[in-house]
Each structure stands twice: as structure tokens, then as C-alpha cells.
């Protein structure tokens, strides 16, 4: 069994200003680590990320710190034990009309432990709300690629959000903390 670890790096109706470094750093510090057995559905060597297929065939993107782990050792359909920080919803705005789904990714360099630097992806999407779990603060969005489950930051008021809403959202993608081949 191969075990690889990566530094932990990671996820309101928003104001107009971009979510900055300080807000992202604060959100990353509060991210929960989830353990799951998954299959690799796709690999993106350019961003050192992979799409994982989890329970009930749900797809989600997971970033991996390239300084610690190179995803090119993975193969599509590999079974992995994965520990990752959930994608974190930083902001969300309801759109007046149904927007065309879109996705824009940028990379943020955030100092992590032991002198390493993490590179989580900040993602902006126009998507549709498909599920809201207010008790656990989870919002599921259907974007241009697939559904994404996001843990909402504490300052995001979920009460005004409804299933079927078209939204513009910004989140930090999920980040692998440890990978082990089954």
C-alpha cells in the first residue's frame, strides 16, 4: 500500500469585494477532514488535482499540494483511501434570472505547516442549488461539470437560500490531506 500525505490546505450572501487571502486562510483553518474510500474518475496533471467518485457515484474535485504529491502516479479507476478537507463555500449570491452555468478557477498560494505552500483552487461558479442541509451547513450546487457539496462558512445566511435558486458562488475546492491506494 502506498501512502502519500499533503499539507492541509483548503472551505453569505456576499458583499461585492473578492474573498481575500485572510478570509480564505481563516476558512481553511476551520475545514473538517473527511475520510472516504473513493475511485479516481479523472486526473488533471496541470492543476495537480483529481476527480473522485465517491459513494452513490457522486463526483467531486480534490486538489493535491504538488510540492508533496504528484497526481500522475494515479490512474483512472484506482481505489483510494482518501482523507480530504471538504470544499468550503465562502460566498453565495442569488441571481435574479437563471444564469448559464459557468466555472472559473484561480490558484491561491497559502502558507501551510513546515514551511510548505499550499495551492488550493478558488472556484467561482454560476450554478443551481439542488440541496440544502441547514443543520450541517451543507449546500449542494449543480455546476457546469457536476454536483458539488460545499460546507458553508458560518457567516453565510442559509435561511434565504432555496432549492432551485440560480446562484453565483465562490468556494475553495476540496484538498487531499492523505492518499493511500487500496
UniProtKB/TrEMBL annotation:
* Source organism, top-level taxon: Bacteria
Protein name as catalogued:
Uncharacterized protein
Amino acid at each position: 500500500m502506498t501512502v502519500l500525505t499533503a499539507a492541509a490546505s483548503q472551505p453569505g450572501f456576499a458583499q461585492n469585494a473578492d474573498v481575500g487571502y485572510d478570509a480564505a486562510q481563516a476558512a481553511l483553518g476551520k475545514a473538517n477532514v473527511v475520510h472516504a474510500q473513493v475511485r479516481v474518475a479523472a486526473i488533471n496533471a496541470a492543476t495537480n488535482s483529481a476527480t473522485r467518485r465517491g459513494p452513490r457515484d457522486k463526483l467531486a474535485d480534490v486538489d493535491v499540494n504538488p510540492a508533496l504529491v504528484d497526481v500522475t502516479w494515479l490512474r483512472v479507476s484506482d481505489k483510494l483511501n482518501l482523507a480530504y478537507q471538504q470544499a468550503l463555500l465562502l460566498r453565495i449570491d442569488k441571481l435574479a434570472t437563471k444564469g448559464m452555468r459557468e466555472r472559473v478557477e484561480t490558484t491561491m498560494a497559502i502558507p501551510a505547516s513546515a514551511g510548505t505552500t499550499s495551492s488550493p483552487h478558488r472556484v467561482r461558479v454560476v450554478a443551481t442549488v439542488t440541496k440544502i442541509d441547514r443543520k450541517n451547513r451543507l449546500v449542494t450546487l449543480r455546476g457546469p461539470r457536476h454536483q458539488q457539496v460545499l460546507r458553508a462558512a458560518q457567516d453565510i445566511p442559509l435561511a434565504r437560500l432555496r432549492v432551485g435558486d440560480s446562484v453565483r458562488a465562490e468556494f475553495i475546492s476540496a484538498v487531499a490531506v492523505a492518499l493511500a491506494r487500496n
